[in-house]
Design goal:
This protein has helices spanning 2-14, 18-25, 59-64, 66-75, 88-98, 112-122, 136-144, 158-166, 169-176, 186-195, 214-227, 242-252, 270-279, 308-313, 333-337, 352-361, 370-381, 384-400, 404-420, 425-434; strands at residues 51-55, 80-85, 102-106, 124-130, 149-154, 180-183, 200-202, 232-238, 259-264, 284-286, 299-301, 317-320, 342-344, 364-366. Helix content is 48%, strand content 15%. The chain has two domains: 10-204 and 403-434, 3-Deoxy-D-manno-octulosonic-acid transferase, N-terminal domain (Rossmann fold), CATH 3.40.50; 214-400, Glycogen Phosphorylase B (Rossmann fold). It has a seven-stranded parallel sheet with strand order 3-2-1-4-5-6-7, sandwiched between helices. A seven-stranded parallel sheet has the order 10-11-9-8-12-13-14. It contains 20 helices and 14 strands. By secondary structure, it is of the alpha/beta class. Helix 8 (158-166) packs parallel to helix 10. 49% of the residues are buried.
Length: 435
């Protein structure tokens, strides 16, 4: 009771500040100043079909959901998919990826009145939360309405598990409200069970099921044509503070005549990285300029959204951003799937199991810092046979771990069947377990 009271107090104190925070964030990302009513459960258009709701909090989860969204659209053509996010970049990615098959909206903040409006408006028959999105009031409202909610592609790091333990019964009640959990790994499953979740199955990581579309491979070919006849080093999904470290290392020990493509993780940082290169006196071409890279230019700024798979498919070696400083690394699976040799730093907690498997398979190498990453990348750029071996290992590694989407869909079908026959989320759990 104490933690629930403290949570309610924190929400009450935050309420007057939320509009100011959205306005402030909207300085760099205008999307935060749009659709503000949705943040409090107010929506314009109502769905014209029964709803399956999927929540992917931000850009990474939205992209990771691609195989599941496509499978849902194919399996349930008589339903309307509603996809929600919390971040502006996530919403924009969802509109780009799924706008033709789904309604896209912001999920409201976790106020009881706001989540009640959300459920009353959309009336979903089933909810799917991607990865780690566990909100106490949202899940309590779903349970009260007997709407089964699945935590899909679920992961819970040891650090996050400790955080949930600190909030006591509030966290346990939230996890216990889930109808089922599809965990990425056995380690995730054990931590999720300890946190209070029931009906936990290990289904694997759906990121392995994302295959590049033909249009992506065509774009990769076009990008390679603009780069010219040079080897390409990709600095992929870099985070704040990593670009200066990498540029310093590259200028101290240039990787021959290689072209360096820098793709910041967040679009609001494109201009920041451009200013960094300009301040260092380094000539560069923006991806958005849509022109060939002159032979004397050594840097490209990847200032585009939704094209990471194409960047990976058009490079010779990729250094994974988020891993050189304590951000937990970005998705190395996407690189391995298209055969890009991977260099990754020490911080990998977001993809701990995938990193271990990729290292064991010979698809990736791990280094201690930015200087080590550049040195290892330079070595690989000078070793065609080594790159070819890593490329083949990466494709084999990705192929061997596919199937999470199909296993997750089997859980969804059990929950949906139970819901349509009138069973609530908790009764559905028992049916799925005893089937």
């Amino acid at each position: 009771m104490m933690w629930r009271a403290l949570y309610a107090l924190a929400l009450a104190l935050a309420l007057p500040v939320i509009p100011l925070r959205l306005w402030w964030r909207g300085r760099k990302e205008p999307g935060y100043r749009e659709h503000v009513g949705e943040r409090f459960g107010r929506y314009a258009s109502a769905p014209d079909k029964p709803v399956i709701w999927l929540h992917a909090v931000s850009l990474g989860e939205t992209r990771a959901a691609q195989p599941l969204v496509r499978a849902l659209a194919e399996r349930y053509p008589d339903h309307r998919l509603v996809i929600t996010q919390m971040t502006a970049t996530g919403r924009e990615a969802a509109r780009s990826l799924y706008g033709d098959i789904a309604m896209v909206a912001f999920l409201p903040y976790d106020y009881p009145f706001a989540v009640a409006r959300f459920f009353d408006h959309f009336r979903p028959r089933l909810g799917i939360l991607m990865e780690t999105e566990v909100w106490p009031n949202l899940l309590a409202a779903a349970r009260a309405r007997r709407i089964p909610v699945l935590l899909a592609n679920a992961r819970l790091s040891a650090k996050s598990a400790r955080g949930y333990r600190r909030v006591g019964a509030l966290g346990r009640e939230a996890f216990a409200s889930l109808a089922a959990v599809a965990a990425q790994s056995e380690a995730d499953a054990e931590r999720l069970r300890a946190a209070g979740a029931a009906n936990v199955e290990v289904t694997g990581n759906m990121k392995f099921d994302s295959a590049p579309a033909p249009a992506t491979l065509e774009l990769a070919k076009a990008l390679r044509g603009r780069y010219g006849d040079r080897r390409v080093l990709l600095l992929a999904s870099t985070r704040e503070g990593e670009e200066p470290l990498l540029v310093d290392a590259l200028e101290a020990a240039p990787p021959g005549d290689a072209l360096v493509v820098i793709v910041p993780r967040h679009p609001q940082r494109f201009d920041e990285v451009a200013a960094l290169l300009a301040k260092r006196g380094l000539a560069f071409v923006r991806r958005s300029e849509e022109r060939p890279v002159p032979s004397g230019v050594r840097y490209v700024l990847g200032d585009s959204m939704g094209e990471m798979a194409a960047y990976y498919a058009s490079c010779d070696v990729a250094i994974i951003g988020g891993s050189l400083l304590p951000f937990g690394a970005q998705n190395l699976i996407e690189a391995c799937a298209v055969g890009a040799p991977v260099v990754i730093g020490p911080s990998t907690f977001n993809f701990a199991q995938a990193t271990e498997l990729a290292l064991a398979a010979g698809a990736a190498v791990q280094v201690a810092d930015a200087a080590g990453a550049v040195a290892e990348a330079s070595r690989l750029l000078a070793d065609p046979a080594g790159r070819a071996a890593m490329s083949a290992a990466g494709r084999d590694f990705a192929s061997a771990h596919r199937g999470a989407t199909a296993r997750t869909m089997a859980i969804i079908e059990r929950l949906a069947k139970g819901q349509r026959t009138g069973d609530g989320g908790q009764k559905t759990e028992d049916r799925g377990r005893n089937a």
